[in-house]
Design a protein that fits this description.
Elements (H helix, E strand, L loop, with lengths): L1 H14 L4 H23 L7 H21 L5 H23 L2 H5 L4 H11 L9 H10 L4 H22 L3 H4 L4 H9 L2 H8 L3 H15 L10 H13 L8 H7 L2
Length: about 250
């Protein structure tokens, strides 16, 4: 219940800008209290609490993501570190709750989960410029191990764009689960390269930002996509402009 109240307060902090700080403080306090109970539940998951744990993990991920971008400070490095923390959180939750996926598909969430799964399995994307990223990775002065990790990461990103292509147009902007899909499955080694601020890792992140930009009307996303693309461009400098051409063109549309 406290996580639901926390998410509600977070939503109000976005939609009622004149009381932004008031509601955000309440959201943060409620989230801290909810997280304490959540951690104890994760230690003893069973059929009586797995559905609640799954729903809470979804709200918790949404909260952390929203805080990362919509309550960011002026330092891009801080935002990037917060995003890496969000990725780590989501991957950890996936490991714990993933063992219960079959059960969840037969629970009261079955219609929601099956509908999401079916949408994610259709669609062939015709806009994702993976050939640009392949040229970037092929020509980069990096180790073979890093090149392999980048290609795995790009493949996962391609799957995300294909999932998006399978959605009816009205659903694209509101498909919140798509926000987290790539953050969860991107290789841990990619997160380490991103943490090191490797240019290739940041360029790949700018392509993910296009997915966020497509969901800019969703209250928890807002300008996160365009912000990421612009901040990455500023961080890397003009030498990397050519590799940011596609994300920038998408953010301008």
């Amino acid at each position: 219940m406290k996580q639901i109240l926390s998410t509600s307060a977070l939503h109000l902090s976005i939609t009622r800008s004149e009381q932004r700080n008031f509601y955000h403080q309440h959201a943060t306090q409620l989230q801290s209290e909810a997280a304490a109970g959540y951690n104890s539940i994760l230690e003893k998951l069973d059929e009586s609490n797995i559905v609640a744990a799954f729903l809470m993990s979804s709200l918790l991920g949404l909260h952390v993501f929203c805080d990362t971008f919509l309550f960011r400070d002026a330092d891009f490095s801080h935002t990037l570190d917060a995003l890496l923390g969000c990725m780590s959180l989501l991957r950890g939750v996936r490991v714990v709750i993933g063992n219960w996926w079959t059960y969840l598909l037969s629970s009261e969430l079955d219609v929601i989960l099956m509908d999401a799964t079916s949408k994610h399995q259709r669609g062939i994307d015709n806009t994702f410029r993976n050939e640009d990223l392949e040229r970037l990775i092929s020509g980069a002065d990096i180790s073979d191990a890093s090149r392999k990790i980048y290609r795995e990461t790009i493949d996962e990103l391609g799957h995300l764009f294909a999932m998006e292509a399978g959605l009816p147009e009205p659903e694209v902007g509101q498909s919140a689960n798509m926000i987290f899909a790539w953050l969860v499955v991107a290789p841990q080694e990619y997160a380490e390269l991103l943490s090191a601020r490797r240019p290739e890792a940041l360029i790949i992140l700018s392509y993910y930002a296009v997915v966020l930009h497509h969901r800019r009307s969703f209250w928890a996303v807002g300008d996160a996509g365009k912000y990421l693309i612009d901040a990455i461009g500023t961080h890397l400098g003009r030498h990397w402009d050519a590799w940011l051409a596609w994300p920038r063109s998408m953010a301008a549309s």
